[in-house]
Design brief:
The protein is an alpha/beta fold. About 40% of the residues lie in helices and about 20% in strands. Strands 3-2-1-4-7-5-8 form a seven-stranded mixed beta sheet, with helices on both faces. A two-stranded parallel ribbon has the order 6-9. Strand 1, helix 1 and strand 2 (about 35-40) form a beta-alpha-beta unit. Helix 5 (about 135-150) runs parallel beside helix 8 and helix 6 (about 165-175) packs across helix 7. The longest helix has 19 residues, at about 215-235. The radius of gyration is 17 Å and the shape is globular. The mean pLDDT is about 95.
Length: about 240
């Protein structure tokens, strides 16, 4: 299965070099992974310059850059829609909290489903470094409220490691409109409306303490976006 990897990056000058090194090393060993799309989401540090350097020095690395910052959902949407047509698309965070090697477990799930989402919350998920207790509590509270509002059945929608089939990726993100952190929920609701099947898959995960999510402000914004998703798209279709 040919695959494109999309990585959104906002002020990732510090973490991006090591993550790109790991991903490109993985690509050399797995030639079915055809390209890496790095999306500079209006960064104010040296991220854009780094991505231009990677694009010029490394094979099969493409850069997308714009200003000002549009939000994580916007960055992912841009990356997915600009990725080479005909490739399945892995979306992963710049910190590689889930190691790139876990692409294999999502790929197996895509043999029988259209979308595979990594999960930190299943019984067989392997969580090493956990979030602080208050982030875990807020995450669980958000998930309960999100499921009650949208009907989405999954217990972890916010893990940043998701694989979309070539067909589902382009169709889902062509309809997406959420620019910030609730993009995951919107993508799953759209997938259900389009008749695509979704698998929740246990993955490895280690928390990176340098999170871009601001717990109170962004949780409130996410909840507002979830309500808007329900009003615009309706409930998840089982």
């Amino acid at each position: 299965m040919p695959i494109s990897i999309v990585v959104p990056a906002f002020n990732e000058e510090r973490r991006l070099p090591e993550s790109v090194r790991k991903i490109t090393a993985f690509m050399r060993e797995h030639p079915h992974v055809r390209e890496l799309v790095l999306v500079d989401d209006g960064s104010r540090d040296g991220t854009a310059a780094l991505i231009r350097r990677f694009e010029s020095e490394l094979p099969n690395v493409r850069g997308v850059s714009y200003f000002p910052n549009g939000g994580k959902g916007y960055a992912i949407r841009r990356g997915v829609l600009e990725a080479t047509p005909g490739l399945a698309i892995l979306v992963t965070d710049a910190d590689l909290s889930t190691p790139i090697e876990d692409l294999a477990v999502l790929t197996r799930a895509l043999e029988t489903h259209d979308v595979a989402i990594g999960s930190r919350a299943l019984a067989t998920s392997d969580v090493g470094i956990r979030q602080r207790w208050y982030r875990q509590l807020m995450g669980k509270t958000f998930n309960r409220m999100m499921r009650a509002i949208t009907g989405v059945p999954f217990i972890d929608t916010q893990c940043g490691f998701k694989l979309f089939s070539a067909r589902s990726a382009k169709l889902i993100f062509a309809e997406a409109a959420v620019d910030r952190f609730a993009y995951d929920v919107e993508a799953l609701v759209i997938a259900s409306r389009l008749g695509f099947s979704v698998a929740e898959v246990p993955v490895r995960w280690n928390n990176d303490s340098d999170s871009k999510v601001r717990i109170l402000r962004d949780s409130f914004r996410m909840l507002i976006d979830v309500i808007r998703i329900r009003l615009r798209l309706g409930a998840y279709r089982h």
